[in-house]
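> Could you send the Homeodomain-like protein prediction when you get a chance?

Sure thing. Input:
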Amino acid sequence: MVSSIGSFSVFKQEGVRQFYCRWTEKEDELLVNAVKKYGPHKWSLISQVIPGRTPAQCSTRWHGALNSTVHKGRWSPDEDEILIKCVRTELKSNNNDTNRLPWNAIAKSIPHRTGIQCQSRWTEALDPTVRKGRWDKYEDELLRKSVHQLGCCWIRVAHCIPSRTQRQCRTRWNQIRNTRRPSKRQPSSSLPSTSPTSPTSTTFPAIPKDSL
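Output:
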């Protein structure tokens, strides 16, 4: 049975084959018990308890859906302000290299937020270098070429398109793909027109008077 607690699709591994598979209630139960036993940090050890799941998937599932101490609601202005200050401080110390930002360390300054949440909030909403708004033809062409070469690996695709995020690339690609599909319209069924017919009168033979 698929878990109802904010389940989402992730890659699952079986031998050399990878496929998308939602977390099940059984997997969630195994994950919760493993975290209770080993703690919320030993993800390599925890993943061994859940067949087909990687340490990164277990960590993401725990912090993103099952950890009750993590705040999953909207970000407040105070949280945004703290995040912006922390990111600016870190950028000054690492020559503005956003790929080296220590998100888990930054998250320690914002109670009940994870490193993944901080990274997502910055890249999707607060980063001033991210371009928002309509895509132009040049960006669309870059996106097509990148997806053709790299597939739907949005981390790598986003690196090929300046000032666009993974989510923006995925959303735009879905829009392009949907516009390519011809709309399936049901042909209107028209009934043949029938002209009204006048009722026909039937003449019955007269009954002889002798039989009355």
